[in-house]
Design goal:
Largest sheet: 2 strands, antiparallel
Number of domains: 1
Distance between the termini: 63 Å
Number of strands: 4
Radius of gyration: 20 Å
Number of helices: 13
Order of helices and strands: HHHHHHEEHHHHHEEHH
Helix content: over 70%
Length: 335
């Protein structure tokens, strides 16, 4: 491998991580809103869905961007991940399709309550399957040469289930804090009451997954408890815990409406950095490194040039869309 190749591979590793984080926090809150709609009762369900406006269309765009860039920049990883995790990936796509269909049909149906329930179930399915995808990947996919060598059900294990539950709870936290911003009155109070337990449950699940993974894999043990690897993990974890404290204080204060959502985003972001620091330099834990999975240098350069033009445009479009649909709901919406 030529000398510039690892540098480009690292750059693409960081870029794909950035795009994945954007998808998780943006599509995460509307998935969380869908999950919460299952527990809000008939009176609140329409309010939850209408609070999303049309932002959910743009949020899911990041998943398409992520898949395309992963295929181009790390084709080996793309092939192994799709081969090893095709069952939860197909289930995730089915959940996403079900959500989109439900949102379109509810405005035309004589019985919109059915499609509102379908939207919530689709959101729950998508969240759980994304957690199983992440948990299955972190469990370690079996690779022989450049191909997946395991079973199609390797992803189904207790650790992956823990990650799936934790991610779903985290999405519920994002959804609840987003609803604090978008609504007034009783809807805001209900969302605030939900956010606290969801935050605690998500934190406990995340810490349990970290401890479990460290105990299972010697690489993670050395990364967390040896110098200088611990610099990639402990600072992010401590910042995440500090952000959690600020999040709980903002929820208990009850006066600031934007702060809980911002702290939830930071909470996700710091734990995401902790995850990335734990895994680096592996793209497929703990067998395929970033440099080994990378495409040829010329391909990486061309993709980087194109992405440098398109990524700011997508970000600008998303920012404009959120500005257009920034209006707040009112008590009784959807009754």
């Amino acid at each position: 491998m030529s000398a510039p190749q690892p540098l480009l591979a690292i750059l693409w590793f960081l870029l794909l991580g950035f795009i994945l984080l954007i998808y998780v926090v943006l599509d995460g809150f509307d998935l969380g809103v869908g999950i919460l709609s299952l527990f809000g009762g008939d009176r609140r369900r329409s309010s939850f869905i209408e609070s999303l406006g049309y932002t959910w269309h743009a949020n899911q765009t990041w998943l398409v961007v992520l898949g395309g860039l992963l295929f181009g920049a790390f084709p080996l990883a793309y092939g192994v991940i799709l081969s090893g995790l095709y069952i939860p990936l197909i289930a995730m796509l089915a959940g996403l399709i079900f959500r989109g269909v439900s949102l379109e049909f509810r405005t035309q149906a004589r019985n919109p309550a059915f499609w509102e329930w379908a939207f919530g179930l689709g959101s729950l399915t998508t969240s759980l399957t994304q957690g199983f995808i992440l948990g299955g990947l972190l469990s370690g996919l079996k690779v022989a040469g450049s191909s997946f060598a395991g079973s199609g059900w390797d992803w189904l294990n207790p650790f992956a289930a823990l990650v799936a539950v934790g991610l779903t709870l985290g999405y519920s936290l994002l959804g609840a804090t987003f609803m604090i911003i978008k609504n007034d009155g009783e809807m805001r109070s209900w969302s605030r009451r939900w956010a606290g337990p969801a935050a605690w449950a998500a934190l406990i699940a995340a810490l349990a997954a970290i401890v479990d993974a460290i105990c299972r894999h010697s690489f993670l043990w050395s990364r967390w408890f040896s110098w200088p690897g611990l610099l990639l993990t402990w600072p992010s974890l401590l910042c995440g815990l500090a952000t959690f404290v600020l999040l709980m204080r903002s929820l208990s204060a009850g006066r600031r409406y934007t702060a809980p959502f911002l702290y939830s985003l930071l909470f996700f972001g710091f734990f995401f950095l902790c995850l990335a620091g734990s895994l680096y330099p592996f793209l497929i834990p703990y067998q395929v490194t970033v440099g080994l999975a990378a495409a040829q240098r010329l391909i990486l350069k061309i993709m980087l040039a194109v992405t440098a033009v398109l990524l700011p445009l997508i970000l600008a479009y998303n920012a404009y869309q959120y500005r257009v649909f920034r209006t707040r709901g009112r008590e009784g919406l959807g009754k």
